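Handout for the seminar on molecular recognition.
Each group receives one record of this type.
Step one: identify the two inputs.
Step two: read the structure output and locate the region that could contact zinc ion.
Step three: write two sentences on what you found, then compare them with the reference statements printed after the record.
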Amino acid sequence: MKLRPYSGNSDAAGRGYHHWCPACDEPHGIAVGIRNRNGAVWSFNGDMDRPTFTPSVRCFTTDEEGHQHTLCHYFITNGQIVFCSDNPHALNGQTVELPDWPERRTDG
Ligand SMILES: [Zn+2]
């Protein structure tokens, strides 16, 4: 399983998906049914094995002065993670297969 539907709160079911990010070694969530806390919502092709989400996904932190710092920026296209060229991590600019969820993480 590469994607996990949002879980916990029943209101969230089907509203988005988590996937494992091999660059950050943690899951990222993509909202497809409702807007996330940043007001963003993505389109999803519905394919759990070779998903495509558009537009790109960008994770960032905001410092005390309100400046955003990118942590992870990528597209998911046909089951592949296409990292943009503005990432601070080791997979910057690379394209990798969307990984299966690591078995060591069972808590969702
Ligand atoms: Zn990431």
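Reference statements: The longest strand covers residues 53-62. Residues 3-97 form one domain.
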